[in-house]
Amino acid sequence: MEEMNMIKMIVSDVDGTLLSHGYINPKCIESIKKAQAKGIEFVVASGRDYYGVTSILDPFDIKCSMILGNGAQYCNKNGEVLMNCYLDKEKLKEILPIFIEHQTPYMIFTTNGFYSTLKPEVVRDRFAYRGKVRFGNKMEDFLPGGPMSDSPACQIQQFDSIDEFIKRDLEIIKVEAFSHDADEIQRVLPYFKDMKNIAYLSSYPDNVEITNEYAQKGLILEKVIDQLKIKKEEVIVLVSLNVFLILLRQTTLKKLFKKKLIKLFQVVKMELLVKLLNML
Prior knowledge:
This protein is of the alpha/beta class. It is built from 11 helices and 13 strands. Helix 2 crosses helix 11 (270-277).
């Protein structure tokens, strides 16, 4: 009870934690609102973009600050970007040819839309099929007017020249490649192992997300709590076991842990949070 009264911030991942198999437990929603009512800051930390998070939380009338693009952006509850760590556009000259050569579908998340050298309908259909295989989504949900028609994969703008694209007035949040076949993604991962100035991780075996090497949830969270003058022991981080293991595998984080420059936040499962908040 005393320890819970010390908590000033709760940070939750989305996929596999807050959202499980496309479903949010009503008890989790109740617990989040209860925490916010008690003045506890609730923060979402996700690889998703702003729409990807708000489309989940808005139906439950939950407004909160967000760490997006795996740490590329930190937004307040109004969607204003307060911190950023964007990918150097020149890195696209190294990244994109790998996906193009292996015919791996991908999309670029930017501060001004979503892009690919692939035809928009190809990205949409390949993403929809992956959703059907992995999550049981319906292909038609991604067609115009469908419930998923506002997702990034359905808003792709095609470009031809990488050199021309990097001159545009926009910033790169992340590059995401995906497939219904996990082996297709696993074949391209070795190409990124020694690539400089990037970080990459997979939310699932059938996708990979590439960002600036310092665009990592744990690193931007450090800056956020420092700015808000919150101590690490006053923060609870909610992640699934799979996500936590991914975080530990990130090269930059491992180095920081070894150098003891940062400490582990308290990590718990969403189910435990529900029980803890019910004690308040």
